[in-house]
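INTERNAL TRANSFER SHEET
From: sequence group
To: structure group
Subject: Lipase

Please process the attached sequence and return the structure record in the designated field. Keep the field labels unchanged so the import script can parse them.
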Amino acid sequence: MARLTMWRGSSCILSLLVVMCVGASAARPAPAESLAAANGTCRSRVEPFGYGCEEHTVTTQDGYILSLQRIASGRGGESATGGGGKVPVLLQHGLMMDGMTWLMNSPNESLGYILADNGYDVWIANTRGTVYSLGHTSLSSSDPAYWNWSWDELASNDLSAMLQYAYDQSGQQKVHYVGHSLGTLIALAALSDQQQHVSMLRSAGLLSPIAFLNKVSSPLALAAADVFLAEALYWLGIDEFDPTGTAVHGLLTDICKLPGVNCYDLMSSFTGDNCCLDNSSVQTFLAHEPQASSTKNMVHLAQMIRRGIIAKYDYGDASDNIKYYGQATPPVYNVSAIPDDFPLFLSSGGRDSLSDVQDVRRLEQALKSHDSDTLTVQYLADYAHADFVLAGNAKERVYGPLMAFFRLQDK
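Return from structure group:
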């Protein structure tokens, strides 16, 4: 009964939290109704701008069928199909996003297009649960078991499968990796826990890095963690966290109509005060996002906020943890175990309320033994969480320095 009372008291927090994650998702159609869902990312978003684009799938070791898009050539450029000598780059989106993250703005402003125009073989990842990665060899996405995963599996299974595939398809050339938000966390976890990834990677660019989360300054993210919101949903049997579901969508519509409620401003208050978004990029965002995640994944992130460590999912009971891990507490990811000579590019913002300045500094401290010529740290005082993928000036401020970093590793 106490848990049910907690759930009732937390329902409004859930609603507001989802609004801020998506920036007024109630004002836009669900992804399944969008043009992209009807035609695919290549046809709807890449080919119209004159780029060569291929749709690929890869199956993880636990049966999830994931989609990848390959931008095989820049505008009018030579195709990378069959290797082509081009250096591959794998782009990994964050929480409640998909591969469209990298294509939201114009070709002159979006990282996916910019990399292709600069001669890279671009691979765009879509993790399990997103609109194009709902397949499974034996499960339907309507089965509760389909959603039995957290970011542990994104690091150990999804990233492994997509990286191996891009590596093989590119003629076994080492791959640059770029992650945003949760995409940085799964890279850090994979690199610290599975050293075989290093042999296939040239470098990793981490934009708005998420590692330690106990200094998150977003009041709603903190409130949700403090009241065990995700755990309440999990206890109620809500395995899929779908912000565009009928019930939540209707509730958000009502909330956005309340006097004084500006859902766009709520997005900013959740992610931080983004400096450089324009209406066009926000509208493109609203036409395609947010994507579903698992409730278990949300529980895992809440555990990180409350505990201040990077560890595997805690099953909440010593006997269950022993069953899965052979020990009473979940194993900790040790980012200091990432090889000191592995090239890393970290770019963070001073207004980011999810990748907080103090948490990023703690990550940098954990990497302090890294070779000085292989660790590049960029700090943008006026940037917040969404600026790194949606800002109109990100090409000059983030992507240019990132590609300069890549060129050093390409020599």
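Handover comment: Residues 244 and 405 are 38 Å apart (CA to CA). DSSP finds 16 helices and eleven strands in the chain.
Transfer complete.
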